[in-house]
Request: fold
Amino acid sequence: MNPWTCVRLVPAASLAPSDGVEASAVRSQSVPLEGARSLRLVERPAGDLLVVGRDVFLPTVYYKLDAELARDGVALQELLESSAEDRA
Reply:
């Protein structure tokens, strides 16, 4: 990718619900990004997800989202929201 390409981040919370996809299916190792305490990279077979705090984002250049990655992103967002509710 060239340095002037704009990568957009689509919030997983703005996508349709996961329709029962098990949240455990998207549990993966996340990699902290250097210099950003609350920013993590989650590597999935269909692509990468970015997690900032408790918000999940799908990176895209042309707003074309892989269906599997979108399902993973939504399921992970739901998992993070439910774990936050459990702590409250």
In short: DSSP finds one helix and five strands in the chain. The helical segments are 67-87. The longest helix spans residues 67-87.
